[in-house]
Amino acid sequence: MAAKKQVLDRLLAKGALGIIRVRTAADLVQTVSALHTGGLSCVEITMTTPGALRAIEQATDKLDDVLLGAGTVLDGPTARQAILAGAQFLVTPTVAPDVIEMAHRYGVIVIPGAMTPTEILTAWETGADIVKVFPANILGPGYLKAVHGPLPQIPLAPTGGVTAANAGDFISAGAALVCAGGWLVDKRAVAEGQYKVLTERARKLVEAVEKAKAVMPKEQ
Predict the structure, then answer these.
(1) What are the tens digits of pLDDT across the range 37-88?
(2) Which residues does residue 18 pair with via DSSP β-bridges, in sequence order?
């Protein structure tokens, strides 16, 4: 498993994370592979998917250049199981102190979810490495920019409703990382085995992020 700093640096350098939430375990490894083919090398497999732990193990064995994490981690025991399965980062929907504690215990990146400025700061002070801002589709890039102003030290990752069309706007607003799920991993395409659709959407997402990052002012 890569060192914690290496994982964090890679997540922030790539700037895009794919969220996989599908109905069956059989779809998971193929979905990870399809996204990777499109250039998306940071992927989160949600724990709400049956067989998620085994999928993390299998994908780690088959795609060693993909950074794999576990999402929708709700408690400490689940966090530990995910880490032992090979997850290199954990994502939660809320500020979950026991998950953050477990991540720190094992030296793993943790990205808890928050919405309000108070929740975002609480997550950061509790030990978050990045804070997931959710639901981004409701809050919008303007909200992210407003929060980023007084809290520039906190890496923010908008999640929910992120697409190739708005990913650049979130990056320009100050996002350190954008997380795309429903649009990226189209359920109908997965059900029909049309994995090329996922590959193309991954390519568009990566291009949008890279384009936005390229015109961002350099830090002094």
Answers:
(1) 999 999 999 999 888 999 899 888 888 889 999 999 999 999 999 999 999 9
(2) 43, 180
Residues for the chain: how many in total?
Answer: 220
Q: Which member of 4, 14, 62, 132 is catalytic?
A: 132
Helices (H), 46-182: 52-62, 76-85, 97-106, 117-126, 136-148, 167-172
219 classed as catalytic: no
> Do the strands 156-158 and 89-91 form a parallel or antiparallel pair, or are they unpaired?
unpaired
Of 14, 44, 119, 145, which is the active-site residue? 44
Let me know if residue 106 belongs to a domain.
yes
- Whether 220 is covered by a domain: the verdict is no
Question: Which residues make Cβ contacts (< 8 Å) with residue 108, sequence separation at least 6?
Answer: 4, 7, 83, 87, 88, 89, 90
Closest alpha carbon to 12 in 150, 134, 155, 144: 155
Active site residue 44: yes
- At 200-215, the pLDDT tens digits run 999 999 999 999 999 9
Residue 64 sits in which domain range? 4-212
Residue 125 lies in a domain: yes
Among 102, 100, 81, which residue's Cα sits nearest to residue 114? Answer: 100
CA pair distance 26, 163, nearest whole angstrom: 25
Give the residue carrying structure tokens 């895009």: 16
Q: Quote the CA–CA distance of 91 and 33 in Å, as a whole number.
A: 20
The answer to whether residue 218 sits within a structural domain is: no
